[in-house]
Amino acid sequence: MEYLNIPENSITKTGISQLGLGTMRMPANKDEGIRAIHTALDAGINFINTGDFYDAGLSEILVGEALQGRKRDDAFVSVKFGGMLKADGGMYGIDSRPELIETYLTYSLKRLGLDYIDLYQPCRINPHVPVEDTIGAISRLVEKGFVRTIGISEVDATTLRSANATHPISLVEVTYSLMGRKIEDELLPTARELGIGVVGFGVLLSGMIGGSNPNSKLDHIKHMVSGSTLENFNQNLSLSDALEEIAKEKGATLSQLAIAWVMSQGKDIMALVGSRTPEQVQNALKAVDLTLIKEDLERIEKIIPKENAKSDYMPAMNLAENGLFKW
C-alpha cells in the first residue's frame, strides 16, 4: 500500500494510505458493510471517511462497530459535520456555526465509540460564517484532545489559506477525477505550497466512470450539477471506450484506471473510493498495483485534455444557489 507524502507535522499519525474508504453509501446489510471495512483495513487502507449526516448517523455507528476489537491506530478516522437532513433523507441546509460544533462532535464520538477523532472537518464552509470562526472552534477541540487534526472540504484557494492561517490544515477534501480537474488551477498548487494533503473524492463520479450503466447514474445526479457540467460529463463519458482500451492493455478495468490516475498525480493526493462490499474493496485495491507510466498518462491526456476536464461535481456553489446555506 502506498502512503501519503505530506509534512510530518501536519498529521499526528504516520503512514496514511493513499487509497481511502468512504462510507457515505454503505449497504443496508450491516454485516456486509462491516466486512467491507474489515477488508479495507486488513489490506492496509487505514483512512476511513464518514460523516455525522451520512445515513443520519448510521454510517458512524457502522464504522464504530467495525473498529471494535481492533487497535485504535489501525484506522485513521475522518469525520465531516454540518449537513442537515430532512426526514426523507434529503439535505435542507449546512450549519457550521462555531457554538454548535462541540455538540456535533460529542454525538459523533458516541456513535463511533471513540475517545478522539483523527481528522474533523466541516462538510462545506458556510459563506455566512467566517471560516476563521469555524476552524477556530475546531482548534479548541484539538486543545481538549478530542480531535487530532483538522481538515476542510470543497473550498477555494483563498479560503484554504485563511483556514490554514487560523490552524494548520492537514487535508483538504475535494472532488477530483480524470474528468474533473478544476483543482489543478489554484487549489492544488496552494495546498502543495502550504504542505496540505489532498483527499480526492468523486474519482468515479458515483459510478459513472467504469459503472455498468453510466447513463442511469447521470440521471441520478443531474440535479446536483450545472447544465454545463452535465454537458461536459456527457462529452467525456462518450470517450470511455478509448480509456477502456488503455485499461485493457494494463490488465485493468476502467474504474481501476481512473483510481490509479488520481493517485498518479502526486504522492500527496489520496483517492477516496466509496466501495460498499468486500468485493468492491478488493476491486479498488487492484488500482494500487496499477502503474501508469509517462506514455500512459500522455495517452489519457490526449483523450481527455485538462481543458476539457471541467466537470464540477456537487460544487458548493450549487448548494448556495439552492438555498442550503441558512446560517
TrEMBL record:
Pfam families per UniProt: Aldo_ket_red
GO terms assigned for molecular function: oxidoreductase activity
Top-level lineage group: Bacteria
Cellular component GO terms, alphabetical: cytoplasm
Boundaries of every NADP-dependent oxidoreductase domain copy: 19-304
Record keywords: Oxidoreductase
InterPro entries associated with the record: Aldo-Keto_reductase, NAD(P)_OxRdtase_dom_sf, NADP_OxRdtase_dom
Alphabetical list of Gene3D superfamilies matching this protein: NADP-dependent oxidoreductase domain
PANTHER family in the cross-refs: AFLATOXIN B1 ALDEHYDE REDUCTASE (PTHR43625), ALDO-KETO REDUCTASE YAKC [NADP(+)] (PTHR43625:SF40)
The protein's name in its UniProt record: Aldo/keto reductase
